[in-house]
Amino acid sequence: MPVLNSVYRHREFGDTLTSLAEYERAGGYLGLQDALAMTPDDALYAFHRSGLRGRGGAGFPMGRKASFLPKDTGKPTYIVVNADESEPGTFKDREIIEHNPFQLIEGITIAAHAVGCERAYIYIRGEYEHQAQVLDSAVEQAREAGRLGPDALGPGRPFDITVYRGAGAYICGEETALLESLEGKRGQPRLKPPFPAVAGLYGCPTLINNVETLAALPPIMHRGADWYAAMGNEKSPGTKLFSVSGHVMNPGNFEIVLGQTTLRELIYDLAGGLRPGREVKAVWPGGSSVPVIGVGSLDVPLDYEALNGVGTFLGSGGCIVMDDSGCIVRASWRLAQFYQHESCGKCTPCREGTGWLAKILGRMVHGEGRGEEDIRMLESLFGRISGRTLCPLADGAVMPVQSALNLFRDEFVRVAEHGSPRPVPMMEAPVG
Amino acid sequence: MTVHELDEFLAPLRPQYADPRSLILPALKHVQEETGWLPPDAMATVAEATGFSQAYVESIATFYDRLYVEPVGRRVINVCVTLSCMLRGSDEIFEHIADYLGLDGEGTTDDGMFTLHKVQCIGACDRAPCLQVDAGEQIGPLEPADATCLIDDLRDEPAPARYCR
Amino acid sequence: MADQGQSPDIVTLTINGRQVTAPKGTMLVDAAKAVDIEIPIFCYEPRLGPPVGACRMCLVEVEGMRGLQTACSTPVADDMVVQTESEVAKDAQDGVLELLLANHPLDCPVCDKGGECPLQDRTFRFGPGETRTLEPKLHFPKPLDLSPLVALDRERCIACYRCVRFSQDVAEDGQLTFQERGDHTEIATFSGDPYEGRFTGNTIDLCPVGALTSNPYRFVSRPWDIKNTPSVCAGCSMGCNLEVTERDNEVKRLTGRPDPNMAVEEGWICDRGRWGYPALRSADRIPHAVLVDQVGRRGVLLERALAEVAGMLINRDLRIGVLLGDPVTVETGFLAQELAERVGDGRAMVRRTGIPGHGLGPLRALPGAQMDELDAADVVLVVGGDPASQQPVAELRIRKARRHGARVSMVGPRPSALDDACEVLRTTPGHLVDAIDVMRDRLLGSSRAVVLWDEADLAAEPAAAAALAELVAATPGARALEMCADVSGPGLRALGIPAAGGLLQAIEAGHIDVLVTIACDPTAGPEGTRWATALEGVGTIIEMGAYVSGLTDRATVVLPLLTPLEEEGVLVSMAGRAQRLRPGARECEGAAAAWELLVALTHRLGRAVPDRTPSQAFSRLAQRHSAFAGLDYGALGTEGAVIAPVEATGADAGTAPAQPAGDGLLVVPCRPVFGDADAFRSDALEPVREPARVCLAPAEAERLGVRTDARVHVRTPHGEMVLPLEVGSRYHEGAAYLVMGDPGTAAERLLPMDGGAVRAVVGVAARQEVSA
Ligand SMILES: Cc1cc2nc3c(=O)[nH]c(=O)nc-3n(C[C@H](O)[C@H](O)[C@H](O)COP(=O)(O)O)c2cc1C
Ligand code: SF4
Ligand code: FES
User: Fold this and answer.
1) pTM summary value
2) Domain B75-156, architecture per CATH
3) Closest Cα to atom 8 of ligand 2
4) Whole-complex ipTM
């Protein structure tokens, strides 16, 4: 089971890199140096060749997205870094920002060179105030050292970064809602097209990427796109951080080479396995918005295609594990409550549907279910919500519940008839 | 906070944004740091300093969970109750804290010291069950006893000069 | 495949198996509508700006596109194949309706919108028929008053964004917003303040459910009891189209038109126009004819009064004057002219109230614009006046022009609600000409400029009028739009009817024996005191009016009139658009339309009357007056037609007024939205009425030694009165801002009839004046 810890430098280095000097000692800014030696187009092409895919959830090839940005529009080009990380079960961007903010800054600077950008914004969720302060300090250090500012991309080629704090809204992770929020509007998704690449922030061409995506750029530039592409497999190259949480002994982030580690290895070998006597019952492998899978799928290799093969998504890599002490209906209800709370309210199926889902599941859990009738109601509701909304939040609300119902129908029927007693939680302090 | 003071805070931010609308959120957060929440006159101040209508500013403020348009206690205790935390006992931690504070679920203590909230995932599932005091560092994993100590410590702390929420 | 030879801007697609062509950029929902395929919508409303795609009601299937598409935001494309009624599309529409109803109260029987509710209609046509929600619905606190005029029931709101977009993006008042998030989203004003504005009622028209309702109309009628008639608002010269709701012979409601006149009001109306109708049943409505004879003063039947009047007019030696007020239709003006030719040996004088406008000829000769030309303008220049208060809906069109990229500037002496939307050049009164000079380069550099100019202000500053006319004429592509002071002015001028100055002189010279007034009271207008004195020498006054006026007690005969909401005929808007009034109700059984009275009189005078209807009168006037040549009454439809420009003739071609001499402050006349007579007669508008007053800059007030809470004495060469004082930094020094309109005060009397500038001496009022 290859564990590389090679892309996110603090992992290889084995320590936190929050001062610029430390970061440079650990090989920081060599990637930018190499990138600046290339033309912007060559840098873009290198992104492309590396095969790096977006780590925010959708897995869209990063180089391709960057190449969509029109040039010479007469308008500024912006980079917006998605550090909203609000997907339940996901906390990888937090680690990068806390432990290795400069690698992110360097990555953004490399992207700025490639797409011709003078200002980037890091949109960080409001709950990450502590992490935002780490970022502030890093940006300030970089500025003092001239790595940001008037000559950041070479003499006379300015580039700077603004850290923008959110204030508590999951939907602001959706890229167009994020842009709205950053523009000072209510964080509600926009109709697409136009896509942000063409008309993003303030109507200008905008590259939006996740923290983990951009932080992968420095090693890609320094060690080479081919080095990166050679890891993993053809469609899922490189390494990815997985956040593992829930009923595991050793929750945390793990960097693995895509396609070469199985879900079972991630849970048992890296995350410390389960409590004695417990077995895996359900796993949401890519954050809470992906279909849940059962114990039968544990041997799936962790890469985009293989996970699709077992009916789910790699998503953000936020892997939530539930053992056989847990109630799948209660878990689904809890997630439905999350989506009800986080629906922005703009479009009907999501605004009304997420609340309806949560109400039905809540009744079931509390012993007020109506047996098969509720199950049928749930099933018809899924179809009335998903695929009909303005943004994918609502699909994300339906998928985990719908998949749970498919996988654990008997348990749903039982709970719809008898309710679900509250289980004994796993309270032991995790190891490590 | 006066409009003038807020203007001074916003002055260095202005050139960073192509549209002054972007200043509303930073301004609201900054103003909230002073009183801990956003009474109508605070929102009116933001409206004046940024040049947008009061109603507009309020519509922004009410969109976000961490901007408070109702009064809150000196410290806001945010207990995460989303799936990963639930699996590790967040409901029990929440109830324990509520009991200890003499609250029936979410709410503010009579002495105005604490507001207890259930919140959605705070991005620290590796520390589940976890909580956040105001917007401080995510704390966990918690046992009921840890939570009790934490509250006792907070009670002894002087009120923060500026709230960071 | 697109047909050969078709313009590249037209695309051909298939909707439900039918071939459809539509211009590029058309949204699917509109392309479908053009061939009578209805795709249900809620949030889509192009007048509010680009689609938001929020309600998801309009989901349809488009071949080759993944998932369902919102027809409101998907532009047509060549070879597109669309299904709006397939099983999948039907299920989506049905599903959205079910979800919309999940939290919607099922109180249609008691809801004001019931019976004319898009949500209800669509549920019948596209929906499930019954809802399966067993979950408790969300509850919001009780319905509340968003303002004295608009009520909000948040439980019924379906968050379609329309009202909020209207407030934010059309009226740009910023007051109505969404608060909270998700299923708790609600519309609200800042911390529950009342929604204040001049256009708030449009949110009621826009609301597709019963969430926003009209307070004055609440629980007044049910849709099956009412009749709706399209007509035109006679509240100002803008000429907005509206719809009159009638029940039991009463006007119960006015709304914007469902099929708006895009060249005029685009479906918006102002709150004064919307809620002025209760005036029709106010206490000072004249209910029946009144006659004064040997027996005394008494009410009589209209027939009897008409016979009496005919008897008075039949004497060929009498010298007769007819004064037309505001608003009167062109048919009324024309029939008055014809009557005049048949009485008093054909020497009767027909005159109109309003500004003579000497010196405005060159401005009126400029190429004219319609309101919709503002949409494509690159420069919009407003000279004088204040459209925001005098032609309110023009404000919305000017704001839209700005959103479309026009540079908007406003020059003139008054503070305006439009100030936030344009570059403002506030002039000292009397100095418009300098401001026009400042705008010179801006205008000359434009290619599609529209210049809106105020009739009253430019009449008062002839030098400015000349300069502006010359500048606009020199600007290629520029067009001018007059903001008229009165509603009837454009129509009556087109009939060649001059202003009243000559008539007053004739009266003063003792040359008038009988004066017939139609919808006016000159004693309450400019130089009203002089009129009052002069009228003492007139033997017989015959008043035709809808409301009690200063003449009513003096008149020998009073003939009750119907109001524009009750009568038929044509009004010409400030943009020269002839539009039809249609009687929406008839509140006053004893009253008649002015044209009817004129026809009846002519008939009684023993003349053949060819005209028995406004339509016949109109076709004859169209033959006689070149401005109306070629227009056909029937063909005016609900769009209207633009009349030809008129050349100033006869008595209106006099000399422009001179600049005022003497001391005192220059008077800036101001006419607030909620300040006209209707606003004072309508009880609905009571909370927002704006009383007459004088406004001064703080320094000016200090210099004059007057205090804010005081009443002040105001004197011009035309009269004097005591008025409340308002002191505000919005006002310029060196001027007295005279807020007029309040019929009880009739501050207009202080102004000159020639429309010229005037100075006022403002001072502390004597004690007895204040208590009086
Ligand atoms: C409801 C919703 C929430 C999202 N939240 C996040 C998030 O917190 N962080 C993130 O990087 N992407 C999030 N995304 C994905 C973004 O929309 C976007 O695809 C991503 O930022 C692009 O960056 P990438 O290509 O580097 O992954 C979210 C998407 C949706 C629909
Ligand atoms: S799907 Fe939900 S979150 Fe997305 S736009 Fe619609 S209401 Fe908002
Ligand atoms: S009408 Fe299309 S989404 Fe509302």
Assistant:
1) 0.95
2) 3-Layer(aba) Sandwich (3.40)
3) A344
4) 0.95
